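Listing S7. Sequence submitted for prediction.
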Amino acid sequence: MNTKLTTILFDLDGTLINTNELIIQSFLHTLHEYFPGQYSRNDVLPFMGPTLVETFGEIHPDAVDEMVASYRAFNLTNHDALVTEFEGVLETIVALKEKGYKIGIVTSKMFDVVLKGLKLTKLDPYFEVIVALDHVEKAKPDPGPIQLAMEKLQSSPEETLMVGDNHHDIVGGKNAGVRTAGVAWSIKGREYLESFKPDYILTNMKDLLAILEAEGK
């Protein structure tokens, strides 16, 4: 029998906040500077999830730092205009806090931009722990970021759930020994996430409350 879940860790982009359009446009802007006309919207979808250094390192190893800087400059400038909320997220997070769950964020995004997104979507008061890319040596799917969040929350893998929209979240969760939930609103599609065999699939973030309620009975 599974240990009762007490701790819920969330990815940020594409899971808690809808940054999909911002990320796509940031990639297209940057790639157009170096490879005009060579990349379409569909071409950049696989780049969503890995770190910028990994992605640009494969595309143009000699210009990684410049491409990352270009991406981040565009991303910050256009952040508030292009980031939106996902249905059911804020209500679910508020409910989790009220029910006494420990909640945190584990993301491959830089901490300053994480705070910007949380503030914009009014999620900023609710998370006890945020583990961002600049807090770790290796990003998900390495287990380190999830393990660091659990350490800060004083939680064990048995009582922890990782929720995300990408295979990095599901595989990273499995590597850290926690249970996993994929979100069906992932831009990569429900079937893509299901192929990594998460313990749960959420069609709306509110599904999480039903799962936790059923588990607690």
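Caption to Listing S7: primary sequence and predicted structure tokens for the chain studied. The chain has a mean pLDDT of 96. The beta strands are 7-10, 17-18, 84-85, 102-106, 129-131, 160-164, 179-183, 200-202.
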